[in-house]
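ZP: hey, is the adenosine monophosphate complex queued? I don't see it on the tracker
AM: it wasn't, my bad. submitting now with these inputs:
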Amino acid sequence: MDNCIFCKIVRGEIPSKKVYEDANVFAFHDIHPAAPVHFMLVPKQHIDSLADVEDSHRNLLGEMMLLVPRLAKEQGCTDGFRTVINTGSVGGQEVYHLHVHIMGGGKRLPGMIPHPR
Ligand code: AMP
Ligand code: ZN
């Protein structure tokens, strides 16, 4: 995708603080971190969002989920972490290239969804 900001990061056309790269995925620090550790894991292949995944993405998604705990630990999330995949307008997605936010490295993150007690 020519104008996708995360495709440009994957291609090295926009600078990023790289966390990890292999043939299928790329990970980089979020430019506006919401936690002491906050990076994103994206497929190199452009997929708009989690709402657009198909059966053909099974192996890719599996690789990404297996990488999350490994990279989180390597980045200093030793006491757990939060993963977020914002999807679509209701989900607050701003960049339409599938990405997993991984956050941690500090104190307990605030609750996201208020629960009635
Ligand atoms: P969202 O689509 O809502 O899950 O959020 C997109 C995320 O991408 C936000 O947390 C932004 O801070 C982050 N972001 C946008 N542009 C860049 C960039 N050039 N480098 C790193 N992170 C970015
Ligand atoms: Zn893209």
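AM: back. The mean pLDDT is 96.
ZP: great, adding it to the tracker
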